[in-house]
Amino acid sequence: MITAAAEERQTYLNESYGIKSWLLTKDHKRIALLYLATITLFFFIGGIFATIIRIELLTPRGDLVSSETYNKMFTMHGVIMIFFFLIPSIPATLGNFFIPMMIGARDLAFPKINLLSWYLLVAGGLFAIFAMLAGGVDTGWTFYTPFSSSYSNTYVVATVVGVFIAGFSSILTGLNFIVTIHTMRAPGMTWFRLPLFVWAHYATSIIQVLGTPVLAITLTLVGVERIFHIGVFDPAYGGDPVLFQHLFWFYSHPAVYIMVLPAMGVLSELVSTFSKKQVFGYAFVAFSSVAIAILGFLVWGHHMFVSGQSAYASLVFSFLSYFVAIPSAIKVFNWTATLYKGSISYATPMLYAFGFIGLFTMGGLTGLYVAALGVDVHVTDTYFVVAHFHYIMVGGAIMGYLGGLHYWWPKMSGRMYPEGWAKLSALVIFLGFNLTFFPQFILGYLGMPRRYHVYPDEFQVLHVLSTAGASVLAVGYVIPLIYFIWSLRHGKMAGANPWGATGLEWKTPSPPPTHNFEETPVIRHEAYDYAALMEEEANVR
Amino acid sequence: MGITLPLFPEQASTLAPQTDHLLYFLLAVSVVFSAGIFLSIAYFAIRYRRRSESDLPPKIAGVLSIELTWTIVPFILAMIMFAWGASVFMQASRPPNDAIQVYAVGKQWMWKLQHMEGQREINELHIPVGVPVKVTMTSEDVIHSFYVPAFRTKQDVLPGRYTTTWFQATKPGKYHLFCAEYCGTNHSGMIGWIYAMEPQDYQAWLSGGAPEGSMASSGEKLFQDLGCANCHRADAQGRCPNLVGLFGTTVQLAGGGTVKADAAYVRESILSPNAKIVAGFQPIMPTFQGLVTEEGVTQLVEYVKSLGRQPGSGSPIGSGTTPAQQKTLPRDRAAMPAIAGSGPTQR
Questions:
Q1: In chain B, what are the domains?
Q2: What ipTM score was computed for the predicted complex, to two decimals?
């Protein structure tokens, strides 16, 4: 299973054995793997709900499940996928594993807090799973009041407690990253030598730390109103239901950037490595992450153009929303320009990178539609919005996550995944995704409202196409699960740097030793300096 | 059971083509941009594919002029989108003054609608083509949303306050009415139809009768039954403000400040009387929360509005005369027959 040479070498995986050595570990790499296992589980739970939704929507009638059950399915799909998969996904796994390695550190600044944050995610997840098993929750992941606070007869409190607890996991991870990036960079690792993955996570962390507490207090107020009937959101007790939406979206719009900024960070690494070019316009890409983090806090009202908020407030939010579009566009242009005169490899991670750029471009461009007041009135709360945010979150965030997972898998496991299967599944996911979600743009513009269990007959053909796509997509997601597990035993040995990448994480063996580096690295070059890398390699030979 | 695959929604209101024209512009911009990006990627990926592991591409750090170009050009386009979207939206959020008025109350899981003439409908709304229709809406329970895709209009319907939407149908037909804000178990069953009719057909439908009389007359009945008239006397001698001529005016409040006497203000004054006290009066009015339904409140609003449409009329409120007759044609409605009459020739 392990070659004799590798067996002698101490790695973070063979340093100690037993369940305790994992559950009490303070090693950021092991914690990253704990997260990886946890979120993979949540991803497939969320996926099961999505499957039931898509099968139900094959026909216009409600023939598979009752309306009550259907409503619980889309609620729990959203809650699980957003709070227990997408938000922790890249930061808690790839970020946790590679930020310390990329900056030449031995660990995160607060290893115990890092472990605590995993336990918080698990504890929050247990509350959410309890709510599901006890009977489910049917408010939609948005928990709109007064439905959630006064009318729903489902397990709202258990669910919001779960999300509340998981929120602290997110806050602590963000805090840990910020402190780590500020204080633990190796000698010579200046801010402008940081890989763009680190910049993206720095921006993400700012949002996690500043935004998540607002979600926590908002959900607390929902719980308090539900239990004690204190009037905050329900007009029957003297509250204001639109206030909830302001507070909720103040977090939940920036939360979209918690999901997609890390994926953008992954993209910068992939595009650079697989074209052997430094990222075009490094500073623009780095600062566009920070710009997105800041501007992202000023646009929440664009979720509320028809909510009854003042028309003038809507004007301001629409205006600001167009500002946040620009930094995203800058990134896409810069990645494209990076390819120019590169040496472009079609390895699986790069296929995911191409997929990300294509899908994120479509998700981003349709963001311009929903930011346009005149169009949003028609398409908000329809499948157009459903398609738009799935292009961002699935087409963007999950493609980035899978691309990153394939890219760093050799480093994490020491072994290569099977390239042929991986390319095939990347293609299956790309095609399945488009078949699932592209018809939903058309459905939405036709006027099909979201969260509808039964629907008028004329929408059926497009729903059938979407369900067909979802079946393909499901296959695409199961294949990597199988071959990643397979590769742990049977994959080819990877070597320290299978991609010819420049990051510090590739300068240490795969899998890395517990302390990451034998000696603290000293950085003499800017990020993505392939000429310097080749020179070094030539010298070693 | 033929298979239908509609790809574009019907355009049945004055707003629909405006929304769609903006959509076409957005589509054009996105096709140009995505084609540019996708073709560049495809070209670079093929032209610069890796030929040898020892390739060392040239170092290109970035070019400021290029960065500025692809920052500024998209920004200008984005500002055009903003301005265009905003102008469509601002028009759509201001109902014309000559709009006819309909009230809607949403509840789990049905739409209750009432015309000023008194006709009530459930999950159906009949409207004339070519005439702006304003819908004043509230909810009895959770948030709903009044969505007519063929009109490209959508407005959330909130408990505890009024929101409004308006539209002007351009062709007769039967159009979906959806609840677009998730509202609980049977959300997808909270649907109905809008019937847009030729004005003369609409008049014929209206004259089909409303057994309870107009909304204003129903409101007057409520005004009597709830005992409102005891204090709100028209002779200005009451302990409470005189409501004649009130609607649409600006009210001076105790402690400074003013408020426009619109439907929202009248509603609030009935259900939360102490929220805004008129200057010179004491906060003595009890709340009517729980004593009158949201539909009852809309009728009271119409009644108060009808009082405002009789300037100089000395008719004391609730004096025993039969104001129902004279109130059936307040200004909004009075405009109706003229418009309806001219309907056929307009086309």
A1: 100-206 (2.60.40.420), 215-342 (1.10.760.10)
A2: 0.92
Cβ-contact B109, B190 below 8 angstroms: yes
Q: What topology does CATH give the domain A25-540?
A: Cytochrome C Oxidase; Chain A (1.20.210)
Contact (CB, 8 A) for B130 and B346: yes
Name the phi and psi angles at B308, rounded to 5.
-75, -10
Q: What pTM, to 2 d.p., does this model score?
A: 0.91
Identify all chain A residues contacting B150, using CB atoms and an 8 Å cutoff.
447
Nearest CA-CA partner of B198 in B165, B170, B166? B170
Give A136→chain B minimum CA distance, Å: 13
Least Cα distance to B15 among A375, A385, A307 occurs for A375
Give exposure, B20-32, as e/b (b: 16+ Cβ within 10 Å): bebbebbeebbee
DSSP E strands, B84-233: 100-107, 110-115, 120-122, 124-128, 132-139, 144-148, 153-157, 163-168, 173-179, 191-197
Give the domain ranges of chain A.
Answer: 25-540
A498 touches chain B (CB under 8 A): no
> Would you call B135 helix, strand, or coil by DSSP?
strand
Cis amide leading into B109 (omega within 30)? yes
B93 touches chain A (CB under 8 A): yes
Yes or no, beta carbons of A342 and B85 under 8 Å apart: no
Apex A238 CA angle, A236 and A242, nearest 5: 90
8-state DSSP, A498: T
Helix (H), strand (E) at residue B260: strand B258-260
Amino acid found at B222: L
Q: What is the pLDDT of residues A60-89, one digit of tens each?
A: 999 999 999 999 999 999 999 999 999 999
